[in-house]
Amino acid sequence: MAAALTSSSRRIATRERLIFALDVPDLKGAKELVGQLADSVAFYKIGLELATSPHYFELLDWLLGRDKKVFADWKLYDIPATVSAAVRQLSRSGASFLTVNGDRAVAEAAASAKSESLKVLAVTVLTSVAPADLSAMGIGLGLEELVLLRARQAVAAGCDGVIASGLEAAPLRAALGAEALIVTPGIRPADRTGAVADDQRRVVTPSLAFRSGADHIVVGRPIRDAADPYLAASAIQEEIAGVFG
Q1: Structural domain count, the chain
Q2: For position 128, what pLDDT does the model report?
Q3: Domain with 238 in it: what CATH number?
Q4: What is the rounded CA–CA span in Å between residue 52 and residue 184?
Q5: Are 45 and 218 in contact (CB under 8 A)?
Q6: Is 75 a catalytic residue?
Q7: Which residues face 121 on adjacent strands?
Q8: How many CB atoms lie under 10 A from the CB of residue 231?
Q9: Least-confidence region, from 27-36, 49-58, 129-138, 165-174
Q10: Which of 45, 68, 75, 114 is catalytic?
């Protein structure tokens, strides 16, 4: 079955639609896992766990040297001048994606400092947050309303797209149009959706994410913790290929 006409108009290689979250504590473990995954993964997210190690940029360069794409998941949040300076530095790293988290001023600062090759993605609402959590944060908006508000502000500020749950992908695509990137974490394969979703609260399957308008999915523990990570990643790649043909 062909993909629904809800994904962005950007040309994306099918195998790059899966982004694996390389959430391990050290360089040795990261390289071993990349070796296990071999050709089943072409795009890697390096997040905060490895950012607190001394080898973040060594790993980034090592991945680039193996023709892998890199998503630098820093979720930058600071005063605009500091965010701008950090994005300018990261634009030289060779990463393809970078995340920011904050208000419109933060998004504008990041967008104005990025290179042409670096796509800046704004976090909307983390997939660990449930609707009932918003009132505890002092937020009066409903969850979908908040996601849409933050997404519209980020794209209007110049960001290339957003990070959001697949549960909000369809209304986001309708609101943002065909140019914006939608990257969806909180992915659980169909055989795991009835199981405990760890700390992820708003989860969807790979197929549902893409049919709802996502361009990329981010998958971590279902691959990393599988008995055979290569087979787990390959199964997701097969599911993606079934969506996009």
Answers
A1: 1
A2: 83
A3: 3.20.20.70
A4: 24
A5: yes
A6: yes
A7: 99, 161
A8: 12
A9: 129-138
A10: 75
182 in Cβ contact with 172 (< 8 Å)? yes
Report the predicted TM-score, pTM, of the whole model to 2 decimal places.
Answer: 0.91
Q: Which two tokens stand for residue 168?
A: 């909000």
109 Ramachandran zone, left/alpha/beta (phi>0; psi -120 to 50): alpha
The amino acid at 104: R
Q: What is the pLDDT of residue 137?
A: 85
Q: In this structure, is residue 197 part of a structural domain?
A: yes
Beta bridge partners of 43: 69
Model pLDDT, residue 4: 45
The neighbour count for residue 108, using CB atoms within 10 Å, is 19
Q: How many residues does the chain have?
A: 245
Residues 6+ apart with CB under 8 A from 152: 175, 176
Element (H, E) at 24: none
Token pair in block for residue 104: 């419109």
Name the helix (H) or strand (E) containing 233: helix 229-244
Quickly state the pLDDT bin for 3 (edges 50, 70, 90).
very low
Domain range for 213 is: 14-244
Residue 56 lies in a domain: yes
Beta pairing class for 161-163 and 119-123? parallel
Residue 160's Cα: distance from chain center in Å? Answer: 12
Residue 74 DSSP SS3: strand
> What is the number of alpha carbons within 13 Å of residue 193 lying toward its C-beta?
10
Amino acid sitting at position 223: I
Residue 2 lies in a domain: no
Give the pLDDT confidence score for residue 200 in this predicted structure. Answer: 59
